[in-house]
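Sequence, please.
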């Protein structure tokens, strides 16, 4: 039977009312970084495809890949890779049944954020 009293039911909390928590924000960023790494992967595959196609096409692709905008995308993708990696390690730790207390979950969230930046900077210096 159709629900005729739809307007009388309370609504669940909306984003304007609900205050995001660190665990929810880091979870959302894990999904975003996972999808954002696809852009870098497509750019790198395109660059390799251009190298296999010929020197003229590779020159165009290389000019695009060495532009400041694409370099910024690749650096952000490097951060996304490390963030996604650290968040995956945190989830593996959670899957073992540990680290689920609120204070430890927040420490792990901050560790993921700081660790991803530190690993990105180390990677940039080593490259």
């Amino acid at each position: 039977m159709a629900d005729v009293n739809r307007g009388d039911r309370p609504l669940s909390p909306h984003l304007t009312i609900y205050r995001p928590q660190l665990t929810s924000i880091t979870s959302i960023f894990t999904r975003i970084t996972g999808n954002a790494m696809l852009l870098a992967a497509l750019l790198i595959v395109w660059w390799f495809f251009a190298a296999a196609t010929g020197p003229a096409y590779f020159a165009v692709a290389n000019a695009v890949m060495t532009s400041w905008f694409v370099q910024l995308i690749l650096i952000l993708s490097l951060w996304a890779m490390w963030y996604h990696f650290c968040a995956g390690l945190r989830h593996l730790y959670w899957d073992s049944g540990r680290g689920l207390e609120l204070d430890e979950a927040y420490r792990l969230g901050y560790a993921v954020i700081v660790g991803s930046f530190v690993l990105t900077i180390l990677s940039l210096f080593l490259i």
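The chain has one domain: 21-126.
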